[in-house]
Every structure is written in structure tokens, then in C-alpha cells.
Amino acid sequence: MGDIIRENWSVLLSYTGTKLLFALYVPAFVFLLLKEKERWKRYLFVYAPGLLLMLFLFSPLRRLYDMILNEADTYYRLLWLVPFGMTISYAAVTAAERYRVALFAVTAAAVVLGGSLVYRDAIVSRAENRFHLSQVMIDVANTVLTHRDADEDTAIGVCLPPEFVQQVRQYDGRFYMPFGRAEVHWGYTGNLAYNLYTAEVIDMEELDAELRRRSIPYLVISDAKSVSLSPAQKGWEEIAALHGYRVWCRKAE
To answer: pTM higher than 0.70 for the full model?
Structure first.
């Protein structure tokens, strides 16, 4: 149990970034516990989050979560239910009613300075269109949709480069892929299609067999990617070449 508690504590601290958010939250929580009189606010800011944090840190909830969902790496999402920022802001303005604006500004500045600039993230870039998605990905997706007939409502299986995986289903929910965010961003192993696709040289024979097994009729490969043999040699037809990517469709048999 001790190991699980330490792990959960580490998850909590990691979730609060540079720890300043948590350092602000603790005194705000204690202040509202002692001073807040309105019952519904006590439930919102004290009772519910306090109970959730206690359950989060101890092992029974962790074991139940893992047993039911089998997704240990998503356990931190329970912390989405804890109103960290709202609690800090409310406690701050309540503590100094006369200096509400000034204190709110100071508290907000402390929260901002304790975090990091999201625009420095590798997956964040300047918007290229109204979808706020990569235009290259949209063009590739539209190529597949046009070839398949965009008016069809059935799902579309496509093996995409990792850089498109996180965005394509935001553009059209009909796409499904042999690997996804779990492999690309969370480092999950054991997905044969992902391992084959991201190898230094794609073993086209193996990838073809895996995509056939998964009933994936479309394949997109960057021109910069090395392939053991052309997909055409395994019965794939090139339907487009754009932005440094080639879009393939498996020929009907």
C-alpha cells in the first residue's frame, strides 16, 4: 500500500506542474474549511474535493480503477474533478474583500508564473485554417475521403504517420487507425502496426499483412520514410502524392 500511496502522491504533484499551484491550493482549502459558511460552497470547495483527494491518494480507489478500466496511466484524470484554480481564486477574493481586484491579479499571476507557456509545446503551432489543424493533414484526409466517397457514413480505416494521429479524428470522426495516441504520445508498446511503421525501415511485407488483418484499406507514408519494398509490390495502388506524402489504397481482390 505504501508504494501505491507514494506513486499517487507523485502523480498529484506532477499534475500540479511546478508545485506552486498545489502550494496555493492547500492554504486556500484550509481557509475555506475554517471560514466558509454557505453549505453549497462548502460542498463544492471543501467536502467533495477533499474526499476525492483522500480517495485518490489511497490504494482502494486506485485498485478499483485499474480493475474496472485497466488504464493505470489515466488515473490522474480523476484530478480534473478538483477545482484547484477556482478554489484558489474564490478563497483569495473572499479573504480580502476590499482588495478583490488586486489580490485576484496577484493570485492569477502566481498561478501563471508557476506554470509553463503552452505555446512552447511541440504539438502547438500557429493556426492554418478554421479547424486549427494541420493543413497537410486535412489535405491528406480529404484525399482519402474523396477516393472513398466522402458522403458514405461508414468508418474509414487508414494507417497514418504518427504526426497526424492526434488530429485526424478531430477533423472527421469516421477515421479509425491501427495505432493512436496511446502509442504516439504515451509510449505504449506491443502494437505491431506501430512498431512496424515507426521502424527505421518499414518492413512492407509485415506491415501489409498486419493492415490486411486489421482491415485497413488506406496507407499514408512520408517520402522521407525508408520502405523495404514499394507498397505497389504488395497490391497497393498510389492514389495521390502531396506535401511529401504518398497515399495508397489496397486494391480490391
So the answer is: no
